[in-house]
């Protein structure tokens, strides 16, 4: 996923500072590439096409292509069956990943995925930083994920917003209107209530993060908003690509809405965020660099801890629709208002 790829990119900066002459490659899914474009610490990006490599012959050809690179160190952050096979096939001297009973034999340095946070960066960062230990790098080194926009991308986004008069004294907010799936998406009618609050408190303008195929879902949120709020929503302005979305976001005062890749991207361009976590996601795993001031999140567990006590991930996922129903806007509104006040 995009958030995973962006977060894992911190390893490149850390390694480059310790080993400036090293050649560093990143193996990723093609759709995630925009978040690491222009990263000065990555020498080469290798795309893994899941549909193409379902064919055993194609996958075998890919494995031999990777082996020819003669890697000395491979860090497998994905830690799934196919990435474990790739890692093992490299014959790298050092093969690093998470400890799992069914793949550990393919690595020679493994680490526990279940850790308690010790630094403000958060568990998602700390789990990755521990992979640096075999390379004699400090696991407490806090390097933030960064997105590198070009001047041309920034100027184009500025021009789009200027043409619509959205870069004046009035606040501008990017709304993470949809999660990556239905179980990670706050109910439309609830989110609309929060958008009403944003406009009432700030008189700000709102942009929606969506793509054309999601228009119907975005409109569902829009249609639940008060008429006065709708006048502040600019549905026709959206990122035609992931890079354009990030460039538009860089001019916003904050990103507000569903937790996910969009929130992680906003953090990587130093934009304040207010994230609403899905009940099915453990907040401790993804509330990276939260300070309770300009990087804030909320989770149903804050209000109904008994719903999560002694429950497995599978049990919670089955109950997600019902849990979302309990996550009513009135729980979130006071914290959202305080967040908005701190932005003034």
TrEMBL record:
Keywords: Glycosyltransferase, Transferase. InterPro entries: Glyco_trans_9, LPS_LOS_Heptosyltrfase. It holds the Pfam family Glyco_transf_9. Signal peptide: none annotated. One of its GO terms (molecular function) is ADP-heptose-lipopolysaccharide heptosyltransferase activity. GO terms for cellular component: cytosol. GO terms for biological process: lipopolysaccharide core region biosynthetic process. Gene3D superfamilies: Glycogen Phosphorylase B. PANTHER family: ADP-HEPTOSE--LPS HEPTOSYLTRANSFERASE 2 (PTHR30160:SF7), TETRAACYLDISACCHARIDE 4'-KINASE-RELATED (PTHR30160). This is Heptosyltransferase-2.
């Amino acid at each position: 996923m995009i958030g995973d790829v962006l977060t894992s990119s911190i390893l490149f900066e850390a390694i480059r500072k310790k080993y400036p002459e090293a050649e560093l490659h990143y193996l990723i899914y093609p759709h995630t590439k925009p978040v690491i474009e222009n990263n000065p610490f990555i020498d080469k990006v290798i795309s893994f096409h899941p549909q193409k490599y379902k064919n055993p012959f194609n996958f075998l050809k890919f494995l031999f292509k990777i082996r020819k690179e003669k890697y000395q160190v491979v860090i497998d952050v994905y830690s799934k069956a196919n990435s474990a096979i790739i890692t093992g096939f490299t014959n790298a001297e050092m093969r690093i990943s998470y400890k799992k009973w069914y793949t550990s034999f393919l690595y020679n340095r493994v680490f526990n995925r279940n850790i308690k946070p010790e630094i403000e960066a958060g568990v998602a960062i700390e789990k990755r930083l521990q992979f640096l230990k075999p390379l004699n790098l400090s696991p407490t080194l806090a390097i933030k994920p960064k997105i590198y926009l070009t001047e041309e991308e920034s100027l184009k986004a500025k021009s789009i917003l200027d043409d619509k008069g959205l870069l004046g004294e009035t606040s501008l907010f990017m709304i993470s209107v949809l999660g990556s799936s239905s179980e990670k998406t706050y109910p439309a009618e609830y989110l609309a209530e929060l958008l009403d609050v944003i406009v009432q408190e700030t008189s700000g303008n709102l942009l929606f993060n969506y793509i054309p195929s999601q228009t119907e879902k975005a409109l569902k949120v829009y249609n639940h908003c008060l008429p006065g709020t709708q006048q502040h929503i600019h549905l026709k302005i959206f990122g035609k690509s992931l890079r354009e979305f990030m460039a538009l976001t860089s001019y916003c005062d904050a990103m507000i809405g569903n937790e996910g890749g969009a929130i992680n991207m906003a953090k990587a361009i130093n934009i304040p965020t207010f994230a609403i976590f899905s009940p099915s996601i453990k907040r401790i795993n993804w509330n990276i660099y939260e300070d309770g001031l300009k990087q804030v999140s909320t989770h149903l567990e804050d209000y109904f801890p008994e719903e999560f006590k002694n429950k497995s991930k599978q049990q919670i996922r089955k109950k997600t629709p019902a849990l979302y129903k309990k996550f009513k806007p009135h729980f979130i509104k006071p914290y959202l208002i305080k967040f908005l006040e701190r932005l003034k």
